[in-house]
Amino acid sequence: MLRFDQDSAECLVFTFKEGLLSAVAHDLKIRVERFEIAVDEAARTVEGRFDATSLRVVCAMSAGKDDKGALSESQKREIEGNIVRDVLDAKKHAEIRFVSSAVEDDDGGFRVRGELALRGRRKRIEVAVRKVRKRWIADAVIHQPDFGIRPYSALLGTLKVKADVEVQVILPAG
């Protein structure tokens, strides 16, 4: 059994802006600061637990690249508060959990299917896993409304976050 956490792996969430005023908004790169992932290679299972209160804004993104100076520290903290309080309702739903139901070989990587429990709802998702140099990179797209999440919106809907967010988990390859 292989075990990973925030000290040995990385979990990132990417959000993307849309709407009439999207030019003044930011795509975001967010890090999950506390999580545990267990991989049983023999049984071909994966389980992950992620602390919904531990999401921290790393930086804004511009054209797919980090834009480290675009947000002040106070703006980052305000966004984090909105995520934890309004988007994830982490007071009631402090844990996000993934449990695999199938792990299949897929062109040098894997396709992992399983159930994601998020904000009190459960939904089957699929995760694509690929090897890049000495790391395994797992990518999933989460459609927020599937979990009862209304994508963040401001200024009467002229500025909002797209319904789909991307989650990336990076694990060392042994």
Summarize, please.
The chain is mainly β. The protein has one helix and 15 strands.
Any idea what the CATH superfamily is called? Lipid/polyisoprenoid-binding, YceI-like
Number of E-state strands: 15
CATH architecture identity: Beta Barrel
* Number of continuous helical runs: 1
CA-CA gap between termini = 13 Å
* Oligomeric state of the chains in view: single chain
Ranges where pLDDT stays below 50 over 5 or more residues in a row are: none
Biggest sheet record: 12 strands, antiparallel
**CATH level 1 class label:** Mainly Beta
What class, by secondary structure content?
mainly beta
Give the overall form: globular
Rg over CA atoms: 16 Å
Stated plainly, the CATH topology is called Lipocalin
Number of domains: 1
Give the secondary structure arrangement, pairings included.
Blueprint: E1 2-5, E2 10-15, E3 17-18, E4 27-32, E5 35-40, E6 45-51, E7 55-62, E8 65-67, H1 73-87, E9 95-106, E10 109-118, E11 121-132, E12 135-143, E13 153-154, E14 159-161, E15 164-172
Antiparallel strand pairs: 1-5, 2-4, 2-15, 3-14, 4-7, 5-6, 6-9, 7-8, 9-10, 10-11, 11-12, 12-15, 13-14
How would you describe the overall organization of this protein?
The chain has 174 residues and is mainly beta. The protein has one domain: Beta Barrel (Lipocalin), CATH 2.40.128.110. The protein contains 1 helix and 15 strands. It has one helix at 73-87, and strands at 2-5, 10-15, 17-18, 27-32, 35-40, 45-51, 55-62, 65-67, 95-106, 109-118, 121-132, 135-143, 153-154, 159-161, 164-172. A 12-stranded antiparallel sheet has the order 1-5-6-9-10-11-12-15-2-4-7-8, with helices on one face. Strand 7 and strand 8 (65-67) form a beta hairpin. The longest helix is centred in the middle third of the chain and has 15 residues, at 73-87. The chain is globular. The model has no long low-confidence stretch (mean pLDDT 92).
